[in-house]
Amino acid sequence: MLSYPPKAGDKFSSTNAETYQIVRLISNGAFGYVFEAIAQSTKQVVVIKIPHIDFKNYSEEQIRERIGMVLASFENEINASQRLDDLEFIAKSFDCGLPRFHQGQNGATREFLLPFIVQKHVVGQTLTSWCAAINPGETTFVGLSSVSEWMRIASTLLETVSKMHERRYAHLDIWPDNLLISDSGLYLIDFGMSFDVASKLRLDSDFNQLHPWLPPERLR
Q1: Given this model, what pLDDT does residue 133 score?
Q2: How far apart are CA 188 and CA 94, in angstroms?
Q3: Residues forming beta bridges with residue 108, ordered by sequence position
Q4: How far is CA 50 from CA 61, 93, 101, 116, in A?
Q5: For an engineered disulfide with 73, which of 60, 116, 125, 192 has Cβ 3.0 to 4.6 Å away?
């Protein structure tokens, strides 16, 4: 059984009978933990995402709701990866699992199942971080100073999104933190809100408050 939150050295077994060992924590954001890990059978370097769950302050009902939201998000990620498998600049998800964790609280140990998802590892940084690095001292997103860089990034993004839309698939959460700049190009990540536009559009009441990059299709 794994302790929560996970740490370097922990091993997860997936639904595809693969075992992944955590190497290091990459980030700890609003959604959850992002780890670099290694697939034990192939030695492939991957990314593992595990959600944040506030077990100390959440009720049992809130925990179930949170895990339900995470499962729906991970399902969207897997579906998008299958539908868009031939697109180059997408960080695809290809495996998942539901291990058992434990956490000590008030002298007692709590056990629970928590999902994780496995994605392609892209070495790079978000567009937000990349712009901050070339604009030291700025505390907000200020963009790029080079027109050629803007054109390179924009053309790759537009081509990727255009190919997605040809397949009737929408991302619905494109903003600087979901764009990774790597040596090989610009990658689109985080397909947790994506879906087939042939299905009914679903508007989340609290999504508008997440960030100012709301895509116009969410306003229908």
Answers
A1: 84
A2: 15
A3: 105
A4: 20, 13, 12, 5
A5: 192
